[in-house]
């Protein structure tokens, strides 16, 4: 009887939380689901397991997100929103073009290092050939602002003669993403293959500086880097 009473109380607390803070409940579900999808993929994640780790229930998950694919897409959108929100907070408009580019690269490297679940979810979505992102106008709109930020930075650098002509802001974004993404996606395999801890603090500091240097050499003129 005591166990039954405790279960009833827990269910009551969950119901009360849902009623008082539906947005908080949805965010809690997305956070837990993101970890499950990152660990097990779309096919391996289980709604029962997600519900058990949240303040909600299986029924409420279906109510908010429709089905597992809807929850997966919401988790993807949330992951992309997190990185774009961080970029939006960067005051690179107040920096010189070279310093602004450095800061953007540093931020991307640090963000990906600190958000491994984001990298895993992007890898999973690539396994699905981007078919779920194709459904999302939210992510497309978020990425438009990301490219616009790089375009503004690049055009400022061109105007003052610091950056090379003929570069595509989208391709600059690609190069930054590629270097920072690989740092997380292939860290474990590189560490095993070459018997070196690529996740160690000193190695991460070197890799981040290397990434900054490579992007600067790609975008900026030699005299701008020396300056």
UniProtKB/TrEMBL annotation:
<protein>
    <submittedName>
        <fullName>TetR family transcriptional regulator</fullName>
    </submittedName>
</protein>
<feature type="domain" description="HTH tetR-type">
    <location>
        <begin position="23"/>
        <end position="83"/>
    </location>
</feature>
<dbReference type="Pfam" id="PF00440">
    <property type="entry name" value="TetR_N"/>
</dbReference>
<dbReference type="InterPro" id="IPR050109">
    <property type="entry name" value="HTH-type_TetR-like_transc_reg"/>
</dbReference>
<dbReference type="InterPro" id="IPR041474">
    <property type="entry name" value="NicS_C"/>
</dbReference>
<feature type="region of interest" description="Disordered">
    <location>
        <begin position="1"/>
        <end position="26"/>
    </location>
</feature>
<dbReference type="Pfam" id="PF17938">
    <property type="entry name" value="TetR_C_29"/>
</dbReference>
<dbReference type="InterPro" id="IPR009057">
    <property type="entry name" value="Homeodomain-like_sf"/>
</dbReference>
<keyword id="KW-0238">DNA-binding</keyword>
<dbReference type="InterPro" id="IPR001647">
    <property type="entry name" value="HTH_TetR"/>
</dbReference>
<feature type="DNA-binding region" description="H-T-H motif">
    <location>
        <begin position="46"/>
        <end position="65"/>
    </location>
</feature>
<dbReference type="GO" id="GO:0003677">
    <property type="term" value="F:DNA binding"/>
</dbReference>
<dbReference type="InterPro" id="IPR036271">
    <property type="entry name" value="Tet_transcr_reg_TetR-rel_C_sf"/>
</dbReference>
């Amino acid at each position: 009887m005591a166990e039954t009473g405790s279960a009833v109380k827990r269910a009551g607390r969950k119901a009360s939380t849902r009623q008082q803070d539906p947005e908080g409940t949805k965010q809690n579900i997305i956070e837990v689901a993101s970890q499950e999808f990152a660990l097990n993929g779309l096919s391996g994640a289980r709604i029962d397991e997600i519900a058990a780790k949240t303040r909600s229930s299986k029924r409420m998950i279906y109510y908010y997100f429709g089905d597992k694919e809807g929850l997966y897409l919401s988790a993807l959108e949330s992951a992309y929103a997190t990185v774009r929100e961080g970029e939006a907070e960067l005051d690179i408009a107040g920096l010189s073009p070279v310093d602004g580019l450095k800061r953007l690269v540093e931020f991307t490297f640090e963000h990906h290092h600190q958000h491994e679940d984001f990298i895993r979810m992007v890898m999973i979505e690539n396994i699905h050939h981007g078919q779920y992102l194709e459904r999302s106008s939210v992510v497309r709109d978020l990425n438009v602002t990301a490219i616009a930020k790089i375009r503004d930075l690049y055009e400022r650098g061109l105007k003052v003669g610091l950056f090379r002509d003929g570069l595509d802001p989208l391709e600059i974004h690609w190069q930054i993403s590629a270097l920072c993404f690989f740092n997380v996606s292939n860290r474990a395999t590189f560490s095993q293959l070459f018997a070196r801890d690529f996740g160690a603090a000193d190695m991460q500091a070197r890799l981040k500086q290397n990434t900054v240097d490579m992007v600067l050499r790609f975008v900026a003129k030699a005299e701008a880097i020396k300056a």
